[in-house]
Design goal:
The complex is a heterodimer of chains A (424) and B (190). Chain A is built from four helices and 30 strands. With 424 residues, chain A is mainly beta. In chain A, helix 2 (47-63) packs parallel to helix 4. Chain B is α+β, with helices and mostly antiparallel strands and 190 residues long. Chain B has eight helices and five strands, in the order ααβαααβαβαβαβ. In chain B, strands 2-5-3-4 form a four-stranded mixed beta sheet. The radius of gyration of chain B is 18 Å and the shape is globular. The chains are: A mainly beta (424), B alpha+beta (190). Strand 13 of chain A pairs antiparallel with strand 1 (33-34) of chain B.
């Protein structure tokens, strides 16, 4: 899938310079962080197209974790569509807006243009005035380009909207790989891996996905090359070959094998050779995740009597228990920043929630999520957001404080999200 | 059972044994598999490669209570396959009832000494997918260990874990979960 889009920077240099000088630095994790409120009147342009681009942009603003879009019903006098009127800024100020975004969507041959203005309400300063172009059918690319332009240049955050999420999609009883952008757009189901595919894991370079398939009637590990769509069997040992995770170098894969008696965690090379055993316990050990600094691995083990999260120092193989709250903590994933571990946790009400904890066992935080049962968390490449699977079979995005729970799929059948590294 | 199907089974078992040896050359071998590019409805070559094996496996895996068997032998086979053992929540310990059923199964296995069985470990939907794959494996292994303890040759007993992927009851109640925490016994062939 090679789509390209061009980006036309029409903004005036003067505005850009001003904007950089006033770049906002935000500590989103600091308690008391107030999201920036955005007023976004309807976009100008052909009805359907303008409406759908508006909705995509509103969702991406929300799932960035940075913005609240104020309900359009409360706009007093938005002015003419497509541009921000200085005269209407006072009205937007009254409803508490920090920014106003106005845009015009139009077609040009088979291309679609997304001309977008973003104005700071308090100063009246135009901080973005750019036209983004993509295919008419792939307007989400233009929206991603806009988001990935303002996040780093105006708000000091990493661009994330070119990153992807791999997950499992169940359709007519068959579970297959599904790959989409991190806001759910541009999704493709990858057929042909058999009838039961599980546990996708992105390689560190974003070019491959490891997954479990019952192709040979056993949970074996395979590696999909996203450029060629070739699949290679990398571990088909007796017993389970499950829960893949790439190590910090990206050269080796951690996985669960049970051939030596009970489920233990091992590292192997891409070609399946060089099996190195990491855990030794009579209990069940599974779901490894490796820190980017190469020093530690978190995993799930029942060695304390029920599933809990443990952390191993890889050089010494010393193991320390991380979680003590609750009777079922599993599926740990290391934050790319290295300070946090996210996992799913069974609460007293019988539902699973996504929770985070620091690697020193402090600051346990249970995220509200959907409240219906949330599983299989995955960190965004910048470690600021978490994708997870809700009990309704949709993938959601939340942030580290749990202030949002934005669905990126609809219709159900989705599970086990894995978030790619940063993509170009 | 036709000779062709027997041949397919033999091939399959051979493959399983080869892989179970963990011989690096085997696991290294690239699958001649090209996953279809993600255009919808593309049939891949791999999908067609072993369709017979897949179909047979699915039938067996679902317990196929639909009695095709006409003779007495067929009926004991169906009974053998349709009698699952059940587990407590998050446990792979064999209950007294499970041990009793396993002991009964040795009767059939001893009187049909060439039959091979795949023990399929399953979990209820609670718990998370990866942990349940490991738990299902331990359930299948626990049943296998006990059958070996009762004198059945290990070579006749394959195991596979389906984790929470193949519930027999799709409900979300304790009764449904109890049915899904099971090991199922599929006859592979002779």
């Amino acid at each position: 899938m090679r789509r390209f889009f061009s980006l036309i920077l029409a903004s005036m240099l003067l505005f850009n310079l001003n904007a950089y000088a006033q770049q906002v630095h935000i500590d989103i994790e600091a308690s008391g962080f107030r999201k920036m409120k955005v007023a976004m009147p309807s976009y100008a342009g052909p009805g359907d197209m303008a409406g759908s681009v508006w909705a995509m942009c509103a969702r991406d603003l929300a799932l960035s974790g940075l913005f609240d879009v104020i309900s359009p019903q409360s706009y007093v006098n938005p002015g003419p569509l497509g541009e921000v009127q200085q005269a209407s800024l006072k009205d937007f100020s009254l409803i508490g807006a920090d920014y106003v975004i106005a845009a015009t969507v139009s077609k040009q041959g088979s291309s679609g243009l997304f001309k977008v203005q973003m104005v700071e309400v308090s100063t009246g300063q135009i901080i973005e005035n750019t036209t983004f172009t993509s295919g008419e059918q792939t307007m989400y690319m233009a929206v991603h380009a806009f988001m990935d332009h303002i996040l780093p240049s105006k708000f000091g955050l990493d661009p994330i909207f070119s990153s992807k999420i791999a997950c499992i999609k169940k359709e007519k009883g068959i579970k297959q790989l599904h790959v989409m952008f991190c806001d759910g757009t541009g999704g493709n189901t990858i057929k042909g891996g058999g009838e039961l595919v599980l546990s996708p894991a992105w390689s560190r370079d974003g070019k491959k996905i490891a997954f479990v398939s019952y192709w040979r009637n056993n949970p074996d590990l395979y590696l999909l090359d996203l450029a060629s769509y070739n699949v290679r069997s990398i571990s088909a040992r007796k017993g389970i070959n499950t829960s893949p995770a790439f190590d910090s170098t990206g050269a080796r894969i951690g996985l669960t094998l049970s051939g030596d008696g009970n489920p233990e965690i091992y590292l192997i090379n891409f070609d399946g050779t060089g099996k190195t055993r990491l855990t030794t316990s009579y209990a069940t050990d599974t779901s490894p995740s490796f820190s980017m600094d190469g020093k530690s691995m978190v995993f799930c083990s029942s060695r304390a009597g029920n599933p809990q999260i443990f952390i191993m120092e890889l050089t010494t193989k010393n193991v320390r228990r991380l979680t003590y709250e609750g009777k079922y903590n599993s599926e740990p994933v290391f934050s790319p920043r290295g300070d946090l571990v996210v996992f799913s946790s069974l609460a007293a009400n019988g539902k699973y929630y996504i929770a985070t904890i620091k690697t020193d066992s402090t600051n346990l935080r249970v995220l509200p999520g959907t409240g219906l049962g949330d599983e299989s968390p995955a960190f965004s490449p910048d470690g600021r957001l978490i994708a997870f699977a809700g009990a309704d079979g949709n993938i959601y995005i939340t942030d580290l404080l749990g202030t949002i729970s934005v669905p990126i799929t609809a219709g159900g059948g989705f599970s086990e999200p894995s978030w790619s590294p940063p993509m170009k | 059972m036709s000779r062709t199907i027997r041949f397919v089974y033999t091939l399959m078992i051979l493959c399983t044994v080869l892989f179970s040896l963990g011989c690096p050359k085997q696991s290294l071998e690239p699958v001649a598999t090209e996953i279809a590019k993600p255009q919808p409805q593309t049939q891949t070559e791999t999908t067609k490669e072993q369709p017979d094996m897949k179909m047979e496996t699915l039938e067996a895996g679902q317990g196929a209570g639909t009695t095709k068997g006409k003779g007495a032998l067929e009926q004991v086979r169906v009974d053998f396959e349709n009698t699952d053992i059940f587990f407590e929540y998050d446990s792979f310990n064999l209950t007294i009832e499970a041990k009793k059923i396993l002991a009964e199964k040795t009767g059939f296995l001893n009187s049909h000494s060439t039959i091979k069985v795949r023990i399929e470990g399953n979990c209820d939907e609670r718990g998370t997918p990866e942990y349940n794959l490991a738990l299902g494996e331990r359930r299948a292994k626990a049943a296998q260990d006990y059958l070996v303890f009762l004198g059945i040759a290990l070579e006749r007993l394959a195991t596979v874990s389906y984790g929470e992927e193949k519930p027999i009851d799709g409900g979300h109640t304790e009764a449904a979960w109890a049915k899904n925490r099971r090991a199922h016994f599929a006859i592979l062939g002779e």
